């Protein structure tokens, strides 16, 4: 049922940041191999927003590998913990969500996560399932499982203490809640980012106190976002959502800094180290196209990846126009006008936000039109609108439609 343990470890250790402990993981895999029983691999995600992004997929891809090797994925949707807010990796208190926000976000998460793991084969649990049953004595017993000194050992809290930044009591509860999830589902392995190690280790302590064998903690590196600096996140705006259209996903990847490519290839693709080194030894732009196509292919398939590659070449390498672009239907009075100011056309088409921006872009030489890409440099220039005429401002394009043209 399962591949040999060494083969499993070769796959599972790729891209991993830390394991507590490797010896325990090997022992669990040996037991699984000998008994034919799958391990229970836990990963928890709080529904803190509408979009699951590529940063979330790093541990989810590891969960997928465990699934493909025959183990049981246990996905925890943090419907209770999202109300607290995970302090991991934060230098300030994280705002918890309201029940209404959590419910709204949770509805979208499974659909997006299903793009990465086999949801039908996974055990999906919402942690309000057990925390809604907790009574005051249960919380007292849970709080009695750790000390203030232990909590202050974690890097996030110690830094905030030194900076005289507030640490709220509800934040101290979060690691215990996440750890208790592991007791409830009897996790053999828990996955998370490197900033989650403390929470995962608390799970080991709580399992041991509950008479269970402590879980193996396996952490993955934090994916840097499209800016190449900060952790990918919705609040920073440097993310790529797994539900974004293929062209948007491809384009955003093409704009990442070159130095991100080794990290993204390792954490977001299944390519071997030898393949990655061979790709990165070539031209950076070609390597980035390969990376962008790999990412699109994972979520949308081969046809979408090839279409994105062809569209990119046409638009940016052959200087052609994309097949799909915004179409702007002009006001009726413009359909027969011979001299419509280009400044007005840029604003009406949405290419410029204001007339002042339109004038500035014209002066910069960023505006052209038609198949011959006639450049406009006079802010007082006019055009005769023609059905299908393409107007360009930098990389932005719009196809003009006159109201007298047939609808279609």
From TrEMBL:
GO cellular component: a single term: cytosol
Location of the protein in the cell: Cytoplasm
Main localization of the protein described in the UniProt heading: cytoplasm
Alphabetized UniProt keyword annotations: Aminoacyl-tRNA synthetase, ATP-binding, Cytoplasm, Ligase, Nucleotide-binding, Protein biosynthesis, RNA-binding
GO molecular function, one term: tyrosine-tRNA ligase activity
PROSITE patterns in the cross-refs: S4 (PS50889)
EC number per UniProt: 6.1.1.1
Keyword RNA-binding: yes
Catalysed reaction, written as an equation: tRNA(Tyr) + L-tyrosine + ATP = L-tyrosyl-tRNA(Tyr) + AMP + diphosphate + H(+)
Domain of life: Bacteria
Biological process terms in GO annotation: tyrosyl-tRNA aminoacylation
Residue positions binding ATP: 234
Domain Tyrosine--tRNA ligase SYY-like C-terminal, first and last residues per copy: 335-389
InterPro entries in the cross-refs: aa-tRNA-synth_Ic (IPR002305), Rossmann-like_a/b/a_fold (IPR014729), S4_RNA-bd_sf (IPR036986), SYY-like_C (IPR054608), Tyr-tRNA-ligase (IPR002307), Tyr-tRNA-ligase_bac-type (IPR024088), Tyr-tRNA-ligase_bac_2 (IPR024108)
Primary role: Catalyzes the attachment of tyrosine to tRNA(Tyr) in a two-step reaction: tyrosine is first activated by ATP to form Tyr-AMP and then transferred to the acceptor end of tRNA(Tyr).
Family: Belongs to the class-I aminoacyl-tRNA synthetase family. TyrS type 2 subfamily.
Subunit comment: Homodimer.
Protein name: Tyrosine--tRNA ligase
Upper taxonomic lineage: Bacteria, Pseudomonadati, Planctomycetota, Planctomycetia, Gemmatales
């Amino acid at each position: 049922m399962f591949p040999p343990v060494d083969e499993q470890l070769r796959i599972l250790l790729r891209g991993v940041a830390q394991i507590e402990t490797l010896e325990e993981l090997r022992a669990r895999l040996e037991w699984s191999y000998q008994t034919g029983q799958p391990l229970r691999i836990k990963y928890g995600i709080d529904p803190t927003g509408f979009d699951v992004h590529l940063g979330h997929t790093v541990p989810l891809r590891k969960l997928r590998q465990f699934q493909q090797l025959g183990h049981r994925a246990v996905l925890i949707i943090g419907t209770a913990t999202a109300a607290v807010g995970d302090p991991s990796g934060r230098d300030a208190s994280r705002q918890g969500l309201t029940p209404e926000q959590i419910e709204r976000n949770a509805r979208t998460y499974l659909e997006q996560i299903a793009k990465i793991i086999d949801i039908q084969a996974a055990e999906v649990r919402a942690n309000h399932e057990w925390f809604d049953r907790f009574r005051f004595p249960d919380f007292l017993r849970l709080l009695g499982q750790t000390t203030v000194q232990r909590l202050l050992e974690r890097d996030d809290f110690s830094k905030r203490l030194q900076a005289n930044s507030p640490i709220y009591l509800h934040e101290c509860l979060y690691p215990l809640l996440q750890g208790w999830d592991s007791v409830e589902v009897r996790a053999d392995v828990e996955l998370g980012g490197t900033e989650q190690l403390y929470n995962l280790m608390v799970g080991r302590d709580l399992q041991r106190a509950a008479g269970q064998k402590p879980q193996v903690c396996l952490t993955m590196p934090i994916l840097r976002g499209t800016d190449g600096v900060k952790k990918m996140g919705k609040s920073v705006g440097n993310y790529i959502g797994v539900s974004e259209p293929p062209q948007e996903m491809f384009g955003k990847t093409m704009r990442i800094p070159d130095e991100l490519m080794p990290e993204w290839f390792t954490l977001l693709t299944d390519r071997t180290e030898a393949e990655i080194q061979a790709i990165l030894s070539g031209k950076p732009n070609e390597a980035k196209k390969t990376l962008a196509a790999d990412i699109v292919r994972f979520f949308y398939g081969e046809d979408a990846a090839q279409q994105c590659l062809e569209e990119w070449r046409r638009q940016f390498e052959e200087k052609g126009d994309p097949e799909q672009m915004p179409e702007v239907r002009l006001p009726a009075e413009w359909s027969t006008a011979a001299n419509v100011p280009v400044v007005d056309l840029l604003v009406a088409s949405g290419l410029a936000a204001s007339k002042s921006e339109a004038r500035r872009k014209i002066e910069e030489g960023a505006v052209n039109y038609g198949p011959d890409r006639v450049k406009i440099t006079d802010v007082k220039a006019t055009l005769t609108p023609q059905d299908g005429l393409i107007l360009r401002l930098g990389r932005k394009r719009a196809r003009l439609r006159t109201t007298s043209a047939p609808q279609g």
